[in-house]
Each structure stands twice: as structure tokens, then as C-alpha cells.
Amino acid sequence: MAANLVEANECLGTKDRVMRFRICRKEAKESGLWIRLLNVADENDLAAQQRALSQEAHELKLIMTAIIKQLE
Q: Is residue 9 scored above 60 in pLDDT?
């Protein structure tokens, strides 16, 4: 996701910027999926970390969505 954020900041135009942020949003969704698939429910500490990472992935997705809406 970080590489696409750099690309979005150095874009060729608005359409390119929107596409880069869409890719970032997709990557945030994918990260959320992999975090949910982790099987760490038995470990309380790891489960808390999983919830925190899942929340962060969700928040990143929302940020990318807001940026895309602003640019369109």
C-alpha cells in the first residue's frame, strides 16, 4: 500500500491519482481479509493484536474511500 501512496502523490493527473488510491483501498481490504484469516483466537494477547490490526485496515480503507470521493 505504501508504494501506491507514494505513486499517488507523484501522479500524472487526477485520473491516475484516483486509480492509485483505489489500488490502496483494495490493498487495505485485502490486508483486512488476511488478518481475519489468522487463527489466533486461543491467545488473548494475539487476539487483541488481531483486532487492532483489523481495525487499522478498515480505517485505512475508509480513508482511501474518502480521498477517492474527494478527487472524483
A: yes
